[in-house]
Write a structure and sequence with these properties.
- This protein has a domain of 147 residues: 3-Layer(aba) Sandwich (Rossmann fold).
- Helices cover 25% and strands 27% of the residues.
- It is globular and about 50 Å long.
Length: 228
């Protein structure tokens, strides 16, 4: 008997999402559903609404109107422990080492295992025994440590804003492999990036935004034909 593949479950749903900053609308009625265990690349020009959408999913920006449902919950605090977020700025403490940073954030999640901190640091290609303060890291090292922080709680939803910014090609390629493996283990990943070619062979879907709206979704790195 031929087995029937399970229907993917939508783990993120946004409905008529609007975000106003004064008279400027950063999001203009965004409605979309996203299945679990996939990697979504969110693409578009500056000002398209990509980061605002990501911050809204991360619970950092409240929509002016509309609804967001993540993992079946409409209140972000109910699922915040299951979400990992990497902002464009690294949001690390410069005076601490990488391990000290992760140990601090681990306590916020109730994680007491130093081994887990070392594990995620190694996963991004850094040395957990490096005692140098993060303030002395290169920008690429800071980006990788920031990714380690986002992965620390083994999230079901991973939200990344320009993770490859100022990262050399070799390290960026390693980060992409890590994200692909994380996706393959069931995590749903959203990546806002201007370096879409890095994700060309691993992204499940490219989500194209323009002027605060989703203008199309493609399986290949090709702008929708009906887009302006």
């Amino acid at each position: 008997m031929t087995e029937i593949a399970p229907v993917p479950v939508n783990v993120v749903t946004v409905s008529n999402l609007i975000k106003q900053f004064g008279r400027f609308a950063a999001l203009r009625g965004v409605t979309a559903e996203f299945s679990g265990g996939k990697l979504y690349a969110i693409l578009g020009d500056n000002g398209a609404g990509k980061t605002t959408l990501l911050r809204t999913l991360a619970g950092l920006t409240q929509p002016s109107s509309g609804e967001v449902t993540i993992l079946g919950a409409s209140k972000f605090r109910d699922i915040c422990q299951q979400v990992g977020y990497m902002a464009h700025p690294s949001l690390l403490y410069d005076e601490m080492s990488g391990m000290e940073n992760l140990e601090y954030f681990a306590r916020l999640y109730g994680i007491t295992s130093r081994t887990r901190c070392a594990e995620v640091i190694c996963s991004v290609g850094l040395d957990p025994d490096l005692t140098r303060p993060v303030g002395q890291y290169s920008q690429g090292m800071r980006q990788r440590m920031s990714l380690a922080r986002a992965l620390l709680n083994d999230p079901k939803i991973l939200l990344l804003d320009e993770p490859f910014s100022n990262v050399d090609l070799h390290s960026a390629t390693a980060m992409v492999r890590l994200l692909a493996g994380t996706r393959d283990r069931g995590t749903t990943i959203f990546v806002v990036t201007h370096q879409a070619s890095l994700l060309e062979h691993v992204a499940d879907e490219f989500v194209w935004m323009e002027y605060g709206k989703i203008i199309g979704r493609t399986r290949e790195l090709k702008r929708p034909e009906n887009a302006q």
